[in-house]
Design goal:
Length: about 170
């Protein structure tokens, strides 16, 4: 069976323990959760989760069925083939920089259209709101160019497109 990246959006009741139940479902069935983001919606009683998982078709169908059975889950949406807008928040700190390294970091920030959020005597901090793929490309480039990095990534947030453009 072919493994591929899958995306699910869930509307859930905004209550204590819901996140634990959903992550427990994944852990209990040995499903891998690649990323998970959660936040309240325009309705304070409802949260939206965006979950990424790498799995085969059969496993993905099981995940969706089991999520649909949970009382706290209001709606399950498979976003895998849906036109969506998706971004992942990432901070990348380039440490132990010379002035020449800083100049190179600024050039890279310009090419990737990322914000320089902070500058120290020997470091530069990027704030990145890119797709997962672009963040991966940026990390590869930074690893090739600099000796000392610190990377912090959040999960992706996605919403269905209002036009036909995709990702």
């Amino acid at each position: 069976m072919m493994m591929k990246d899958r995306w699910i959006a869930l509307y859930v009741e905004n209550q204590v323990g819901v996140l634990a139940k959903i992550s427990g479902l994944f852990a209990g069935k040995s499903y891998n959760m690649k990323s998970l983001t959660v936040g309240t919606t325009e309705n304070d009683d409802i949260s939206r989760m965006t979950i990424s998982s790498t799995c085969d078709d059969l496993t993905f169908e099981q995940i969706k069925k089991q999520l649909n059975r949970m009382v706290e889950v209001i709606k399950v949406m498979d976003l895998t083939e849906t036109p969506i807008h998706m971004k992942e928040l990432m901070f990348a700190k380039v440490k132990k920089c010379s002035e020449q390294d800083k100049a190179e970091a600024f050039r890279i920030a310009a090419v990737f259209s990322v914000e320089v959020a902070d500058i120290g005597p020997d470091s530069v901090l990027f704030e990145c709101k890119l797709t997962e793929r672009r963040n991966n490309e940026l990390i590869r480039l930074l690893k090739d160019r600099f000796e000392s990095l610190e990377i912090v990534r959040g999960g992706a947030v996605a919403i269905e497109s209002v036009s036909t453009s995709c990702r």
